[in-house]
Each structure stands twice: as structure tokens, then as C-alpha cells.
From TrEMBL:
The chain crosses the membrane at residues 159-176, 196-224, 365-387, 393-421, 707-727, 733-755. It catalyses: Zn(2+)(in) + ATP + H2O = Zn(2+)(out) + ADP + phosphate + H(+). This is P-type Zn(2+) transporter. Residues 26-42 have a biased composition (Basic and acidic residues). The lineage of its organism: Bacteria, Pseudomonadati, Pseudomonadota, Betaproteobacteria, Burkholderiales. Its main location: membrane. The keyword Translocase applies. Belongs to the cation transport ATPase (P-type) (TC 3.A.3) family. Type IB subfamily. It comes from Sapientia aquatica. It comes from the Bacteria. Residues 246-345 form the P-type ATPase A domain.
């Protein structure tokens, strides 16, 4: 993850001249590089949010701390300030939703960090236990509420001021001690956070004799804090619920053939595990016996069960419905697909989305400004206009309450986290809020052809011998060469050969040439012969001569949608045979492309395959912008070119498309459940082989943005209203607390709505 992050800010835009060439692969690729120049692009996310990742020394260690006291997100500032002077602290990362602080440091003693956090009251001091049990806390809180209300009633009914004051003070003492203590800590560190603002408001109210109000204010504040904490728990639990899908233990086959229940984290790769009907799969594996339908919703988001047979992959966390399955473990606890998804989501939460960064910057200005306004409010009217001190100070205190940026600061992360979780539930793994926000701005989506627009399982449909070797012999040579390659075309040739149950020859000096083919030596009775197998480009490179008749034969096959590879004798430089393979277009490719077009998004195809095949597939799915015969670096160049029109996403398989995926604004992969590389290389990983998820992602991005705008408007709107009401003298303290915390709660619940709509 860290490596990948560093890749991003280095994005460059290149301006090159190139054309979508319609024909074969004879086009000279050198042209692209000659005309292109690059310049670094000043990306907004190049500004490190907290510390600088690149400056972290290699010997640094990482400490993760759960700080349950990180109530209001503004407290992150307190932590930042506390560690600002320490040069051995290199990086501070805040996961405010999960309340986890990650410290990257080179300290000898981690206790230093603990001590500092105890000093700012964010960590309990183990030597003096001051915290009460939750029951006692609730009882104290309830009593405080009763007392606050009583003092208000007593005040109304004209009771003795001392009685009113004592009742109110008791209420403040019962509910407000922790707030006042935190306020004092904040004051000592010159940090303007909510606790300090509230403390000043309460103490100020007490000083000017507004006893019942002080009590009500602190009670309401504590109440709202409790509700806020509980609702944030909901967002948090939505994520840990994912991991909870994998069972703690499973039945493992022992050496003597018996089955024994073992804890999942003690089961090793290679062991055989049994999943009984109705039981969840404990670890990733390959079915070794049995059949069953399995619901893989926690991983892929699809609610329909999938039929599993011998040889199929199963995922930890999925539910084995009706049959009994035995599977051989392929990933141990901690590294299963489910674990990797959960880790990715957790990391995604730590990256602040653009809106979040903007709001954080705004809050930093907003709070001091309102604080200054309050100071002026308290002093200017009495000093200059002979207004009453009491009224002016009171108004100033109201302003202090609304100076808290809490609602604003919490409005974005809660929304983004809910949207990320909601996406994960649909089988869309988004690796950071920024991708979610950017998805709706996409101008172009570029698709890789093989395995993306097409199923990626081509089938050999024709062998045409060109020299004195027969079909069987040609196939044997091609299959032998390709038995060492992972390419889908290689698989097609090897599969066809397997059907004929012939032997595979030993290949020496094997070489795989990205985007072109393979070469290697095979023994012919007494001496080795060098062969090449690949596309026209490779034939040109190895100086294999193709006759005009052969070329037109190739072109004819290609314009029918086939991909043609040529087997050639390297020393004699003559073609021995043509192999034509055909892949099937995914059934929802065309629907997805037209849906994207209706959303105003351009589409393009970037493929290593030849122009004619690419055109045929393009026609079938509805893509007109086609770039063919591309090597991985070329794909990257074309992405940069498309970026001049606006943000570009690339959907590829994550193997030979890695450079293009990294260059695109959003790199996406399909079928990530089945491929660890695909899951790791992408910014957005679609767990299933389902193209329609792209449109779903964009819809979700739109919805997330709508909620973000709503939340920011609500938070700011309420503040502005109160600011005006206060200046006009129409508001009072407890109304302000109501408004401030009310706004926080509204934005939290509004954000959580994204979780629900499934
Ligand atoms: N192992 C191989 N055997 C034969 N030909 C190969 C092999 N690998 C690559 N080729 C040739 O090189 C071409 C380009 O391969 P590349 O992997 O870059 O793209 P692709 O998989 O065909 O398409 P896409 O870029 O859409 O995924 C293939 O179309 C094929 O002609
Ligand atoms: Zn607040």
C-alpha cells in the first residue's frame, strides 16, 4: 500500500502524438516517444496530510493505539501539537472513525508516547484509576439531568438563588467533570477544541450568574456526545462485521484421516478443511471434494449462491449452503481475501478524502475567527456603546458554543466511510475516499480488451500449417513453447493440445516477450531448433518473412474477431503455422458501455492485440476509440493523453496493465476475488467479473457527493443561523448547544444513510 501511495503524486501528463492505428501491428512505436514531452503535475494530494511518508527512516517502528477518548475529531490537533516538537516522531495517522492513532517513530521507549497521551488526557493513566463503571457513569449522568431540570424549574418558580445555584453546580459537577478536565488540558496546550469552548461557556455562565443554563448546557452537551459516540460505533461496526464472517475454528483432516476441530489461525496452507452444510468457510481454498452452493456475498457482494465443484476456489467468510465441502487451504488466517478486503477498507478510512481535507483546513480558520468574534462581542459593545456587560458576555458565550466545528469536521468522514462500506458490501473495494469522490468526475474510462471486455478464456479454433509440418506437430511445438507462459492465448493452445493427449517437449532458453509472444529451443532428434511464437510484431523483430498470401490470410482471420499468432523457425526465419484463437465478449459489456455513454462518460479500448481484432470487438461492444498493438508502456502513454480531456479511469487485469493502472486517475481491476495481484494493484477493485459495477460505483459516487453537500450545508447553515440570531439577541445558551450538537447528530445520521440503501 505504502509503495503504491508514493506512485501517485508523481503523476505526469505527457503530450504525445499518436494515432489509433486500424491495421496490424507493423506500426512503429518509436514515434510516440520522439514527440512526447512530460512535465510534473502539481497534484493536490502531493501535500502530505500528516507528516511526510517519504521522510520516514527505514528503521522506524509503528505503534497503533486505540484512543477511546478521541471524542471530537478536533482532538487530532491536540495530538499533532503534543508531538510537533519531537523529531523522533515521523508520522501521525488518525483513523477517527475507528479511533486508532498510528505513530511511526524511532523512539527507544514507546512509553514516551504513552506518557504524552496521558498528559493530554487521551489515555488513562494506569497508575491512578479514576474511571467509573459504565453503570455508575450513567447514574451520575441521569442525576445530573434531573438536577439541571430542577434548577431551571426552581429558578422559574422564584426560589432562593442559593438553592438554584447549588442544584445547578451539583449538576455541572456530575456531568461536566470530564469536559472541564479536557477543557483545562486544551487550555494548557493552547488548543481551541470543543471541550475548551464548552468549559469557557459553562464557567462564564456560572460567573455571570446564569446557573440553570450552565447546568442545562453541560447536560445537553454530554448527552449529545454520548449519542454521537454511539452512532459512530455503528459506522465502525459495519466494517469489523465484515471480518466477523470468518469462523474462529474449522474441521481439519488429520494425518490418520480423522477430523478435528482446530482454531482457524492454527490451520496451515495445504491442509484439508471440511465445511459442513450451513457452515461458513474458514479460510481460502480450492475444493478437493464435494459439491455445494456457496453464498459469497461478504466477498463479492452477489447475493445469489455460486455452485462449487472440485477445483473451484472458495473464500473465507462465505456461507456453504447445502452440501458438504472439503477444500485445501490456499491462504492462512490473516491473508485471506476477506482479511485483505478488511485491511484495505481500514487503510482507505485513514486517507482523507479531498472534501475532508478542505473542511479540516476551513475548520482551522473558522474556530479562531468565531472565537475572536466572541471576544469582540463581549468587550466592544460595553466599552464603546455602554451596553450591559452581562448581556454582551452572555451573547459572546453563545457564540463560543457555535464556534465548535465538530458537525462540520465529522460530516465528511462519516459520509465517506459509510459510502466505502456500502461499496464493499456490493463487492466494490474502493481504496480511499478520494477515488470515491473522483469517480463522478471521470471523463473517460479506458478498457483493456482481453479478460475485461472479453471473458479472457480464448479457444483455439484453427491451425493452418504453412510449411512441411502437419497440424499435430505444429500444435505440439506451440503448446510446448507456451506451457511456460501464463498468457490467455498460451492457455488456449495448451488446452487444445491437452485434448489430444500428446506429450509436451522440453524447452530450453525460454523467453517470454511482453506483448509479443514467446521464444525457446526444442530438441529435434539431435540438435536444438529455436522457435518463435507470437504476433506480427514479433515476426518483424525476428526477421521472419511472411508472404503476401500469408498476410492476407492473417488479416482475414483477424477481421472475423480472431487473434492470430504465428509459429516460426527462428534460424530459417520462415513461418511454420498460424494459430487462430477467439475470445467471447462478456455478455454485459455492451450494456455497460452504453450505460456509461448515457452518463456522459467516454470509453476507449487499449489493447495489446492487433487492430482488426480490436475493431471487431469494439464494434460488438460499442467502443469507437480504439488503440491497438500496445505494449504496457504504450498503454500508459495513451492514458496520459486521454487525461488531457479530464480524469481517466483504466480498467485492466492488473498484470501487464499495471503501469497504465498506476498512471490513470483511478486504476480499476475486475474479478479481484480470484486474483491477489488484481486486488493489490488497483485503486478500485471489483470483486466479481461484473462490468456493470462500474456504473454502480459512479452512482454511489454521485450519492456520496450529494450527502456531502447536504451535510456541509446543514452544518454551516445552522451555524450561520445561530450567528445571526445571536447578534440579534434572539438565542440563548442551551439553544446553541442544541443547535451545535443537533447539527452533529443530523450530519452523522445523514451520512449513515449511505450504509442502509442497499
Ligand atoms: N504467450 C503468448 N503466445 C502467443 N502470443 C502471445 C503470447 N503473449 C503475447 N502474445 C501476442 O502478443 C499480443 C499482445 O499481448 P498482450 O498480452 O500485450 O495483450 P492481450 O492480452 O492480447 O490484450 P489486452 O491488452 O487487451 O489484454 C497478443 O495478442 C499475442 O498476439
Ligand atoms: Zn463539537
Amino acid at each position: 500500500m505504502a509503495n503504491y501511495l508514493q506512485l501517485k503524486p508523481k503523476k505526469q501528463h505527457s503530450h504525445g502524438h499518436s494515432h489509433a492505428n486500424g491495421g496490424g501491428c507493423s506500426h512503429d512505436h518509436g514515434e510516440h516517444t520522439n514527440h512526447s514531452h512530460t512535465h510534473a503535475h502539481d497534484e493536490h494530494d502531493a501535500v502530505p496530510a500528516v507528516g511526510d511518508k517519504s521522510a520516514v527512516p527505514s528503521n522506524a517502528s509503528v505503534l497503533k493505539l486505540t484512543l477511546t477518548a478521541m471524542d471530537c475529531p478536533t482532538e487530532a490537533n491536540l495530538i499533532r501539537q503534543a508531538f510537533a516538537q519531537n523529531e523522533q516522531i515521523h508520522l501521525l495517522e488518525f483513523d477517527l472513525i475507528n479511533r486508532v492513532l498510528t505513530v511511526t517513530h524511532t523512539l527507544d521507549d514507546e512509553q514516551d508516547i504513552h506518557r504524552k497521551l496521558i498528559d493530554i488526557d487521551l489515555l488513562d493513566d494506569p497508575s491512578k484509576s479514576t474511571s467509573h463503571s459504565p453503570q455508575i457513569e450513567w447514574a451520575m449522568f441521569a442525576a445530573s439531568g434531573v438536577l439541571a431540570l430542577s434548577s431551571e424549574l426552581l429558578d422559574w418558580s422564584g426560589a432562593n438563588t442559593y438553592v438554584v445555584a447549588i442544584t445547578a453546580l451539583l449538576a455541572v459537577a456530575l456531568a461536566g467533570t470530564s469536559t472541564l478536565k479536557k477543557g483545562w488540558t486544551a487550555l494548557r496546550h493552547f488548543n481551541l477544541n470543543i471541550n475548551l469552548l464548552m468549559s469557557v461557556a459553562v464557567i462564564g455562565a456560572l460567573l455571570i450568574g446564569q446557573f440553570p443554563e450552565a447546568a442545562v448546557v453541560i447536560f445537553l452537551f454530554t448527552l449529545a456526545e454520548k449519542i454521537e459516540a454511539a452512532s459512530l460505533d455503528r459506522a465502525r461496526n459495519a466494517i469489523s462485521a465484515l471480518q466477523a464472517h470468518a469462523p474462529e475454528s474449522a474441521l481439519v483432516r488429520q494425518e490418520n484421516g480423522t477430523w478435528q476441530l482446530s482454531p482457524s489461525n492454527q490451520i496451515n496452507v495445504g491442509q484439508i478443511v471440511r465445511a459442513r452444510p450451513g457452515e461458513r468457510i474458514a479460510l481460502d481454498g480450492i475444493v478437493s471434494s464435494g459439491t455445494s452452493s456457496v453464498n459469497q456475498a461478504p466477498i463479492t457482494g452477489e447475493s445469489m449462491p455460486v455452485f462449487k465443484n472440485k477445483g473451484d476456489a472458495v473464500f473465507a467468510g462465505s456461507l456453504n449452503e447445502d452440501g458438504s465441502l472439503e477444500y485445501q487451504v490456499t491462504a492462512a488466517a490473516g491473508s485471506t481475501t476477506l482479511d485483505r478486503i478488511a485491511t484495505a477498507i481500514q487503510q482507505a478510512q485513514q486517507q482523507r478524502a479531498p472534501t475532508e481535507r478542505m473542511i479540516d483546513r476551513f475548520a482551522k480558520i473558522y474556530t479562531p475567527c468565531v472565537f475572536m468574534a466572541a471576544l469582540l462581542m463581549a468587550t466592544v459593545p460595553p466599552l464603546l456603546f455602554a451596553a450591559s456587560w452581562h448581556d454582551s458576555i452572555y451573547k459572546a458565550l453563545v457564540l463560543l458554543v457555535i464556534a465548535c466545528p465538530c458537525a462540520l469536521v465529522i460530516s465528511t468522514p462519516v459520509t465517506v466511510v459509510s459510502a466505502l462500506t456500502s461499496a464493499a458490501r456490493r463487492g466494490i473495494l474502493v481504496k480511499g475516499g478520494q477515488y470515491l469522490e473522483q469517480a463522478r468526475h471521470l471523463k473517460t474510462i479506458a478498457f483493456d480488451k482481453t479478460g475485461t471486455l472479453t471473458i479472457g478464456k480464448p479457444v483455439l479454433n484453427n491451425i493452418i500449417p504453412l510449411a512441411n509440418l502437419d497440424q499435430a506437430m505444429c500444435l505440439q511445438l506451440a503448446a510446448s513453447l507456451n506451457s511456460l507462459s501464463q498468457h490467455p492465448i498460451a492457455n488456449a493452445i495448451v488446452e487444445a493440445h491437452k485434448k489430444q493427449a500428446r506429450r509436451v517437449d522440453y524447452v530450453s532458453n525460454f523467453k517470454s516477450l511482453t506483448g509479443r509472444g514467446v521464444m525457446g529451443d526444442i530438441l529435434n532428434e539431435t540438435h536444438p531448433i529455436s522457435y518463435v511464437l507470437g504476433n506480427v510484431l514479433l515476426m518483424a523483430e525476428t526477421k521472419v518473412k511472411l508472404t503476401t498470401a500469408q498476410i492476407s490470410q492473417i488479416e482475414q482471420l483477424e477481421s472475423k474477431g480472431n487473434t492470430v499468432v504465428i509459429l516460426a523457425h527462428a534460424q530459417h526465419q520462415i513461418a511454420l503455422a498460424l494459430f487462430s484463437v477467439a475470445d467471447q465478449v462478456r455478455e454485459n459489456s455492451q450494456a455497460t458501455i452504453s450505460q456509461l455513454r448515457s452518463m456522459g462518460i467516454n470509453t476507449a479500448m487499449l489493447t495489446g492485440d492487433n487492430g482488426r481484432t480490436a475493431e471487431t470487438v469494439g464494434q460488438e461492444v460499442g467502443i469507437t476509440k480504439i488503440y491497438s498493438c500496445l505494449l504496457p508502456e504504450d498503454k500508459q502513454k495513451h492514458i496520459a493523453e486521454l487525461q488531457e480531456l479530464g480524469p481517466v479511469a483504466m480498467l485492466g487485469d492488473g498484470v501487464n496493465d499495471a503501469p497504465a493502472l498506476a498512471r490513470a486517475d483511478i486504476g480499476m481491476t475486475l474479478g479481484a476475488a480470484a486474483s491477489a495481484t488484481a486486488l493489490e494493484t488497483a485503486d478500485v477493485a471489483f470483486m466479481q467479473d461484473d462490468l456493470s459495477k462500474i456504473a454502480e460505483l459512479i452512482t454511489l459516487s454521485n450519492r456520496c457527493s450529494k450527502v456531502l453537500i447536504q451535510n456541509i450545508s446543514i452544518a454551516l447553515g445552522i451555524k450561520i443561523c445561530f450567528f445571526a440570531l445571536t447578534l440579534l439577541g434572539y438565542s440563548n445558551l442551551w439553544m446553541a448547544v442544541f443547535a451545535d450538537m443537533g447539527a452533529s447528530l443530523i450530519v452523522i445520521f445523514n451520512g449513515l444513510r449511505l450504509l442502509k440503501q442497499d
